[in-house]
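As a warm-up, study this chain.
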Amino acid sequence: MDRNSILGIVLIFAILVVFSLINQPSKEEIEAARHRRDSIALVEAEKARQIEQKQQQVTQNETTDIIIPDSLADSNNLQQKIDQYGVFGQAALGEQEFYTLENNLIRITFTNKGGRIYSVELKNYQTHDSLPLILFDGDETLFGLNFFAQNRSIQTDQLYFSPDFSQNSIVVPGPEVRTGSEGRTKFNEENPGGQETVSFRLEVAPGRFLEYVYSLDYNSYLVDFDMNIQGLDQYIASNQSYLNFTWSFDVPRQERPSRFGEDRYTNIMYKFFEDDVDNLSQNKSDEENLSTRVKWIGFKQLFFNSTIIAEEAFPNAYVRSEVYEEHPTYLANFYSDIAIPYEGTANEKVDMQFYFGPNHFQTLRQYDIDLERLVYLGYPVVREVNRYVIIPIFNFLRKYIDNFGIIILLLTIFIKTALFPFTYKSYISQAKMRALKPEIDEVTKKFGNDKPMEKQQATMALYKKAGVNPMGGCLPMLLQFPILIAMFFFFPTSIELRQESFLWAHDLSTYDSIVNLPFTIPFYGDHVSLFCLLMTITTIISTRLNQQATSAQGMPGMKTMMYLMPVMFLFILNNYSSGLSYYYFLANVITIGQTYIIRSFIDEEKIRAQLQVNKKKPVKKSKFQKRLEDMAKQRGVQMPKK
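Now compare it with the structure written out below.
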């Protein structure tokens, strides 16, 4: 063999070596191929075992008919799953099984499909038709991670996890909890109970897995949720800085339909990290990209909520609510897609919590992350009145009284008593105005309607000379107005009143009905609320007494409007909380009683005599009044003679 032949053989050999090195599969591809071979081998082994088992059964029964299962179809199905999910393919086949974890307050049902929370039941509550109260339930619930691995889209809620516990039902033990201490951390610190943990693992290879760990304490609505990702950096795409966690479910109806009840207060709320709380629209479908860090996202109904809480904050999220119009079973579909930080290391852990429980202000407030904002207490000023005045008084009375009808009565008496000095001052101001009616009529007759500026100045001069403050009756109304509005938001959203009966009202948190109409009246409804009717009647009586007290003003248009307002409230409050109508009714009755009591010991003739004495006293003009008169003279207005 000559030199050129040897050189050619060496070059050919070198080319083959280089070519084999270039086309050598990566470690991931080798691992996937090995896992694929192992999976196929397992399927074939299972196939052989089943055939052998069947042959043994045939031999034992001395039959000639051998039935061979279609294992080839199973093998093909597994192969398809491996092709679709890669190393996660073997976990795509399985049978769904259920497990429960419960304490004295909630019962959580888990499924091995997705290792997820399948449903949550609140044990101490029922729906309006006396059924178990389930916050969410069903196969349609989305709960799991979404990410790319080996150029494949992986959705963990479609894969089967292995439970790391043996019992199908686990109960968290603990001491007896007194009424009013449900879910309270202070009670739990003084009376500690047990804790139970369950975990579900999705293992793709020895030491490489995704694990969901759930922990539940006794007498708690909080569920700790830890997500452990170990050894999956070999499969998850390295260019991902976030994994997407999807949580979505249809919101079941818990209360009876009412456009001013549960239908109105069901929406998604969220709190930005170290910032304010915001929400999606309550009455229509809505969506929002939360581009900044988020502390928690709450799926809220009127009296209950399901909220996911970050240990620190979620980097960003997308939330969407789809409102169902007049659906008999569900109110809406809530959807959230939450970014979970991912650094691509061998071992990562993400800590979160879930709150599954009532919208109870004190319970939510104890966590100190603004969860109490899930209880809607009105606009900023009104919300503070509810937070610092109404709720503390209500909770104080609740400690000693079980009947909520009596609690509302005492609450009303307390508020009206506290405001009585201002009410009395208002009535005195009205009495002085009535005493000056003859003089006011003379001023009106003198100037008529052609000279409004002169008429106003003369009237104000008369008030000042007699020592009457025309705004004296307005201050008490301004003080009562925030409380009036605060009650408008407090009673419909107060879970304490839910399913609490009083007299003919079966549930003070919703409307009472003494007559169900065979038809629907626009803006009124298909029923008659007796508390609302009584509220309307007493409001008209109170308005009548007030009109008598202010008859000196002589404003027919305003009088008509004052009588029209109770009728408007009749239509509005007929579908509102009966506890609210009951409060307004009691407030009207007490106001009427106070009016008659004040009238009985006020001598209006004595007041008029005192005003006449005041008119003779010299009146010192204030600097402000002097400036007004100077401005009027500059404009050529003739000042009235004294």
